Amino acid sequence: MSNTQHHKNNWVLGLTGGIGCGKTAVSDMLAELGITIVDADIIARQVVEPGTDGLKAIIAHFGNDILDEHGALNRGELRSRIFSNPEQKTWLNALLHPLIRTKLLTDLKNAQSDYVVLVAPLLFENGLDRYCNRTLLIDVPVEIQITRTTKRDNISSEQAKQIIDAQMSREHKQQKADDILNNNRDLNDVKQDLLKLHNYYLQQAKSTI
User: Fold this and answer.
1) 160 labelled ligand-binding
2) Number of domains in the chain
3) Which residues are involved in binding ATP (predicted)?
Protein backbone atom coordinates (compact mmCIF):
# COMPACT_ATOMS: atom_id res chain seq x y z
CA MET A 1 0.00 0.00 0.00
CA SER A 2 1.41 3.39 -0.91
CA ASN A 3 1.60 5.98 1.82
CA THR A 4 0.43 8.91 -0.31
CA GLN A 5 -1.36 11.73 1.38
CA HIS A 6 -4.74 11.55 -0.28
CA HIS A 7 -6.33 8.82 1.80
CA LYS A 8 -5.80 10.54 5.13
CA ASN A 9 -7.37 13.76 6.21
CA ASN A 10 -5.11 16.29 7.85
CA TRP A 11 -5.64 17.36 11.46
CA VAL A 12 -7.40 20.73 11.21
CA LEU A 13 -7.37 23.63 13.65
CA GLY A 14 -10.19 26.13 13.13
CA LEU A 15 -9.01 29.66 13.91
CA THR A 16 -11.65 32.32 14.42
CA GLY A 17 -12.46 35.58 16.14
CA GLY A 18 -14.51 38.68 15.48
CA ILE A 19 -13.39 41.52 13.24
CA GLY A 20 -10.37 43.41 14.60
CA CYS A 21 -9.33 40.69 17.05
CA GLY A 22 -5.95 40.07 15.38
CA LYS A 23 -6.56 36.74 13.65
CA THR A 24 -4.02 37.56 10.95
CA ALA A 25 -1.24 38.28 13.44
CA VAL A 26 -1.85 34.89 15.06
CA SER A 27 -2.14 32.95 11.79
CA ASP A 28 1.09 34.66 10.62
CA MET A 29 2.86 33.36 13.74
CA LEU A 30 1.64 29.84 13.00
CA ALA A 31 2.73 30.19 9.36
CA GLU A 32 6.20 31.13 10.61
CA LEU A 33 6.19 27.86 12.55
CA GLY A 34 5.70 26.04 9.25
CA ILE A 35 1.96 25.44 9.48
CA THR A 36 -0.13 25.77 6.32
CA ILE A 37 -2.87 28.40 6.59
CA VAL A 38 -6.09 28.04 4.60
CA ASP A 39 -7.97 31.34 4.76
CA ALA A 40 -11.71 31.31 3.96
CA ASP A 41 -11.69 35.03 3.03
CA ILE A 42 -8.90 34.50 0.48
CA ILE A 43 -10.69 31.47 -0.98
CA ALA A 44 -13.89 33.52 -1.26
CA ARG A 45 -11.94 35.89 -3.52
CA GLN A 46 -10.22 33.10 -5.48
CA VAL A 47 -13.49 31.42 -6.54
CA VAL A 48 -14.59 34.58 -8.39
CA GLU A 49 -11.28 35.50 -10.05
CA PRO A 50 -11.36 36.09 -13.83
CA GLY A 51 -11.75 32.82 -15.73
CA THR A 52 -13.39 30.91 -12.86
CA ASP A 53 -16.77 29.19 -13.14
CA GLY A 54 -17.86 31.34 -10.22
CA LEU A 55 -17.27 34.59 -12.06
CA LYS A 56 -18.78 33.21 -15.31
CA ALA A 57 -21.97 32.36 -13.41
CA ILE A 58 -22.08 35.84 -11.84
CA ILE A 59 -21.65 37.50 -15.27
CA ALA A 60 -24.35 35.28 -16.78
CA HIS A 61 -26.70 36.27 -13.96
CA PHE A 62 -25.97 39.99 -13.49
CA GLY A 63 -24.54 40.95 -16.89
CA ASN A 64 -21.16 42.36 -17.90
CA ASP A 65 -21.51 45.62 -16.00
CA ILE A 66 -20.79 43.66 -12.82
CA LEU A 67 -17.12 43.78 -13.96
CA ASP A 68 -14.57 46.57 -13.53
CA GLU A 69 -12.50 47.92 -16.42
CA HIS A 70 -9.94 45.12 -15.96
CA GLY A 71 -12.53 42.37 -16.33
CA ALA A 72 -12.44 41.52 -12.64
CA LEU A 73 -15.45 41.41 -10.34
CA ASN A 74 -16.53 44.86 -9.18
CA ARG A 75 -17.24 44.05 -5.55
CA GLY A 76 -18.80 47.42 -4.77
CA GLU A 77 -21.25 46.99 -7.65
CA LEU A 78 -22.06 43.43 -6.56
CA ARG A 79 -22.62 44.57 -2.98
CA SER A 80 -25.02 47.30 -4.05
CA ARG A 81 -26.95 44.83 -6.25
CA ILE A 82 -27.49 42.37 -3.40
CA PHE A 83 -27.62 44.88 -0.53
CA SER A 84 -31.36 45.57 -0.57
CA ASN A 85 -32.32 42.46 -2.49
CA PRO A 86 -32.69 39.27 -0.43
CA GLU A 87 -33.42 37.08 -3.51
CA GLN A 88 -30.19 38.13 -5.22
CA LYS A 89 -28.25 37.64 -2.02
CA THR A 90 -29.70 34.15 -1.62
CA TRP A 91 -28.82 33.36 -5.24
CA LEU A 92 -25.24 34.54 -4.75
CA ASN A 93 -24.76 32.57 -1.52
CA ALA A 94 -26.18 29.43 -3.15
CA LEU A 95 -23.59 29.84 -5.92
CA LEU A 96 -20.57 30.77 -3.78
CA HIS A 97 -20.88 28.65 -0.63
CA PRO A 98 -20.45 25.28 -2.38
CA LEU A 99 -17.55 26.64 -4.48
CA ILE A 100 -15.83 28.03 -1.39
CA ARG A 101 -16.43 24.84 0.59
CA THR A 102 -15.06 22.59 -2.16
CA LYS A 103 -11.86 24.62 -2.58
CA LEU A 104 -11.47 24.92 1.17
CA LEU A 105 -11.71 21.16 1.74
CA THR A 106 -9.31 20.49 -1.15
CA ASP A 107 -6.76 22.94 0.28
CA LEU A 108 -7.11 21.45 3.78
CA LYS A 109 -6.59 17.97 2.39
CA ASN A 110 -3.58 18.91 0.26
CA ALA A 111 -1.71 20.72 3.04
CA GLN A 112 1.63 19.06 3.79
CA SER A 113 2.34 20.59 7.23
CA ASP A 114 2.05 18.71 10.55
CA TYR A 115 -1.43 20.13 10.97
CA VAL A 116 -3.35 22.73 9.01
CA VAL A 117 -5.17 25.89 10.10
CA LEU A 118 -8.52 26.96 8.69
CA VAL A 119 -8.95 30.70 9.31
CA ALA A 120 -12.56 31.86 9.09
CA PRO A 121 -14.17 34.88 10.76
CA LEU A 122 -17.54 33.09 10.52
CA LEU A 123 -16.24 29.64 11.45
CA PHE A 124 -19.14 28.85 13.79
CA GLU A 125 -21.77 30.92 11.95
CA ASN A 126 -21.17 29.06 8.68
CA GLY A 127 -20.79 25.64 10.29
CA LEU A 128 -17.15 25.31 9.16
CA ASP A 129 -16.17 24.04 12.61
CA ARG A 130 -17.50 20.63 11.52
CA TYR A 131 -14.35 20.25 9.39
CA CYS A 132 -12.07 21.01 12.35
CA ASN A 133 -10.56 18.69 14.94
CA ARG A 134 -10.27 21.59 17.34
CA THR A 135 -11.13 25.30 17.41
CA LEU A 136 -9.19 28.32 18.70
CA LEU A 137 -10.86 31.65 19.39
CA ILE A 138 -8.72 34.79 19.25
CA ASP A 139 -10.43 36.85 21.88
CA VAL A 140 -10.44 40.58 22.71
CA PRO A 141 -13.05 42.78 24.38
CA VAL A 142 -15.63 44.35 22.03
CA GLU A 143 -14.32 47.89 22.73
CA ILE A 144 -10.89 46.78 21.44
CA GLN A 145 -12.49 45.27 18.33
CA ILE A 146 -14.22 48.59 17.63
CA THR A 147 -11.05 50.67 18.16
CA ARG A 148 -8.89 48.41 15.99
CA THR A 149 -11.47 48.13 13.20
CA THR A 150 -12.18 51.86 12.95
CA LYS A 151 -8.44 52.56 12.77
CA ARG A 152 -7.66 49.84 10.25
CA ASP A 153 -10.68 50.01 7.93
CA ASN A 154 -11.29 53.73 8.28
CA ILE A 155 -14.94 53.28 9.24
CA SER A 156 -17.06 54.83 11.97
CA SER A 157 -17.47 53.09 15.32
CA GLU A 158 -21.20 52.71 14.48
CA GLN A 159 -20.30 50.75 11.35
CA ALA A 160 -17.79 48.65 13.26
CA LYS A 161 -20.43 47.95 15.89
CA GLN A 162 -22.92 46.86 13.20
CA ILE A 163 -20.40 44.40 11.78
CA ILE A 164 -19.70 43.01 15.26
CA ASP A 165 -23.42 42.74 16.06
CA ALA A 166 -23.94 40.75 12.87
CA GLN A 167 -21.37 38.19 14.04
CA MET A 168 -21.99 35.62 16.75
CA SER A 169 -21.64 37.17 20.21
CA ARG A 170 -18.30 36.98 21.98
CA GLU A 171 -19.85 34.96 24.84
CA HIS A 172 -21.38 32.45 22.46
CA LYS A 173 -18.07 31.99 20.62
CA GLN A 174 -16.26 31.54 23.94
CA GLN A 175 -18.68 28.72 24.79
CA LYS A 176 -18.21 27.02 21.42
CA ALA A 177 -14.42 27.27 21.11
CA ASP A 178 -12.14 24.52 22.46
CA ASP A 179 -9.33 26.98 23.18
CA ILE A 180 -9.28 30.72 23.77
CA LEU A 181 -6.27 32.96 23.19
CA ASN A 182 -6.46 36.37 24.84
CA ASN A 183 -5.03 38.81 22.30
CA ASN A 184 -5.54 41.94 24.38
CA ARG A 185 -2.06 42.05 25.94
CA ASP A 186 1.65 42.11 25.19
CA LEU A 187 2.46 40.30 21.97
CA ASN A 188 5.21 38.27 23.64
CA ASP A 189 2.71 36.81 26.11
CA VAL A 190 0.39 35.98 23.25
CA LYS A 191 3.30 34.26 21.45
CA GLN A 192 4.22 32.22 24.54
CA ASP A 193 0.67 30.94 24.93
CA LEU A 194 0.36 30.29 21.22
CA LEU A 195 3.55 28.21 21.29
CA LYS A 196 2.12 26.07 24.08
CA LEU A 197 -1.06 25.56 22.07
CA HIS A 198 0.98 24.82 18.93
CA ASN A 199 2.92 22.07 20.73
CA TYR A 200 -0.33 20.63 22.04
CA TYR A 201 -1.81 20.63 18.50
CA LEU A 202 1.31 18.91 17.14
CA GLN A 203 0.86 16.13 19.71
CA GLN A 204 -2.85 15.82 18.93
CA ALA A 205 -2.18 15.69 15.20
CA LYS A 206 0.48 12.97 15.63
CA SER A 207 -1.70 10.81 17.85
CA THR A 208 -4.77 10.92 15.61
CA ILE A 209 -3.15 10.14 12.27
Assistant:
1) no
2) 1
3) 20-25
| The 179-182 sheet, strands edge to edge | 36-39, 116-119, 12-16, 134-139, 179-182
If pLDDT is split at 50, 70 and 90, which confidence band does 203 have? very high
| 3 occurs within a structural domain | no
In a domain, 2, yes or no: no
- Summarised one tens digit per residue, pLDDT across range 42-95 is 999 999 999 999 999 999 999 999 999 999 999 999 999 998 899 999 999 999
178-188 pLDDT per residue, tens: 999 999 999 99
Domain with 140 in it: what CATH number? 3.40.50.300
**Residue range of the domain that includes 62:** 11-208
Q: What distance lies between CA 87 and its chain's CA centroid? A: 25
Annotated binding residue 18: no
Give pLDDT, residue 8: 66
Q: Are 163 and 125 in contact (CB under 8 A)?
A: no
Closest alpha carbon to 12 in 102, 119, 166, 168? 119
Residue 135 is assigned to a ligand binding site: no
Task: Report which of 40, 190, 201 is spatially closest to residue 134, judged by C-alpha positions.
Answer: 201
Residue 92 within a domain: yes
